[in-house]
Amino acid sequence: MAFENVHNYLEQLVFEEINRSVIEQQPNLNENLLEDIACVALNNLTPHYVSHNVYLAFYQSPAERKLIDSQVRNAVADAVTFVLSHQRS
Asked: Over the chain, what is the mean pLDDT?
């Protein structure tokens, strides 16, 4: 049995939010900080494992999608604050 399709649905949403909001606002952040932000954000979200994204999109109501989008935005914003406040000089 192969499991290569199983993944956390929120990973791509977090990566897209980082690209959309963080990199545009703070283009000087290095790759390590961006990875840390992604990890902190994902660790603060409840994972949603799927084998294919279309399954979740099909069974998800618009209200549920809106809630997930809001949770992702908040998790990324909180992760940025956390990571930047814990940088070593």
From this structure: 91
Q: What pLDDT, in 10s, does the model give residues 16-39?
A: 999 999 988 888 889 999 999 999
Go through the chain and tell me how many residues it has. 89
| Residue type present at position 18 | I
pLDDT reported for residue 1 = 67
Inter-axis angle of helices 9-17 and 31-43, to 10 degrees? 130
Q: Tell me the two tokens of residue 13.
A: 């949403």
Q: Is the pLDDT of residue 89 over 70?
A: no
Dist. CA 62–CA 31, nearest whole Å: 33
- What does the alpha-carbon distance between residue 75 and residue 43 come to, in Å, rounded to a whole number? 9
